[in-house]
Amino acid sequence: MTKFFKNLWHGLDLTRRIFLNFLFFLLLIMLFSAITSSPDIPKIEKHSALVLAPHGYIVEQLTYIDPIDQAIKEASDSQDAPETLLYDLIDAIKYAKDDNKITVLVISTKGLWGAGVTKLQDLTAAIKDFKESGKKVIVYDDNYSQAQFYLASVADEVYMNTDGGVFLLGMARYRTYYKSFLDKFDVTVNVFKVGKYKSAIEPFIRDDMSEAAREANLLWLGELWDDFKQDLSDNLQIENSKINEYIDNFKDNLISYKGDSAKLAVDYGLVDKLMSRIEFREYMMDLVGADEDNKSFKQINHANYLRVKKSNYDYLDPYSNKVAVVTAKGNILDGEHKEGNIGGDTVSRLIRRARLDETVGAIVLRVDSGGGSAFASEVIRKELVKAQEDGIKVVVSMGDVAASGGYWISATADEIWAKPSTITGSIGIFGMIPTFDKLMNKYGIHRDGVGTTPYANPVDVGMPISADVAEIIQTEIDSGYQKFLELVAKGRNMTTEQVNEIAQGRVWSGSQGHKLGLVDNLGSLNDAIKSAAALAEFEEDKYDIWNVKRELSEKELFLRDLLNTSEVTETLKSSADRKPSLADKALNDVTQSLKTLNMWNDPNHIYSNCLCEVTY
Fold first, then answer.
1. Catalytic status, residue 48
2. What is the percent of the chain with per-residue pLDDT over 70, rounded to a whole number?
3. Which of 213, 216, 304, 495 could bridge across to 199 with cysteines, CB 3.0–4.6 Å?
4. Is residue 263 part of a domain?
5. Is the entire prediction scored with pTM above 0.90?
6. Structural domain for 80, as ranges
């Protein structure tokens, strides 16, 4: 028997060595290939179409994905919800406007999963600017969801499959409530909060939405929806009443059209013409010519186009005046975190880099966040205050959401810019600590012990929180809320009483926030950058924009260059760009919910988060 196990061990050891050697030689081959091969640079043929085909969600900043994890997911055909960077799309449009080789912009929305309204507005603004060149904008899809049609509405020609439809369903805010579920498992959720409208913690203490939350949500959702419909009306140049009629009477109209949603969309002026995929391809081949294979039209997608037009290495004159742009996107977490979340220490370091650069006269903080850790939010805000004390102007540009902690880091800036459809405010904080003492006791598990003071073991998930500790935590929450009021009052030149009237954790739209004094100006990121340059007293167009980014480690750079070997397929030829299925959306919702649990890392258990992001 001993000999058997010895032989088994030697066999396993030999297998391990062979496997490790195989991996080693595989990495050597990949490294040699990466060093010796030069990637093919795409060619732009004359009279080509630039294909704008966002895939997945349009985002402010791409979520960092470890290159090895990405390679494994690609190999197993299992990936997270895809993302397309907003500014890649905008840059491609900007370059194409003055490019003589690009004669038409073609938009394919079939791979678009969703986007916030402000991102869609920024993108359509860039498309409108492109149209000033006299070049045509054409869009085609099998059918259009709400976000997809918003993007399509700005085109000169809107085409759709004969079996398609345009589905404008409205804007909603639904959440899952867990109180009864938690009660079944004897989980005690200890909640400490300030603010009548601070509803982020409601799912853990209720089974339905409170009336206060319902009232506030309907107000800002209604305003965003009205703006959305007005934008469609302006883009399509049809009466707003007709848009409302199409939406409000959709069921009855669809019945009268015997289920022909495609013809319904055409008759209401939402779509210009119905075409099959084959007909659209032939139409485009007649318009710009056929490609080398004579299978489709001459085209280049935006990713390959940027490879030609934009250098991989952004050069900045080391002596020029600069406006530094720092992006804060995601949940605000304590400590160091990579792109996709806002690490308090990470973003503070980016601000510090800009602050210590003598050529920087202004910092623009681009915020796209519903908040998170109150402690990390204050770490970021103090770094911005230090920049102001050093004579650097600080301007905030709000994206889709800049609420709760997202507003905390913004409040004391020299100027705050937002879009009318930005979600902001939600000035309030809370603490939440679950305990499992009832559940443990139910199954005969008990915790007990001693401490030198009543507070030596203040929070123990296996024991109930004492009345004294609960009072201490609530006192800290009250103090934190008062601090929030005071810093907003100081930054916005208001009294704490005035701020308290519009605070209480209530969410506002950007236009409402502007009327209430929470926002100084309504406009885009570019507007904020221009204003920051003016505040820094830079001459117009005599400054550079420095996008301050986290520096990748040597390991990250090596793995990125080694494993980034995939080519981007021409979008209209690829089956990868597809509409998300219900399973895709459900899986993404679950994934995002699980990721949200990671944000509860504030050292003081105090949070400022609205959990109010809305994607269309």
1. no
2. 81
3. 213
4. yes
5. no
6. 48-167+258-311+566-593
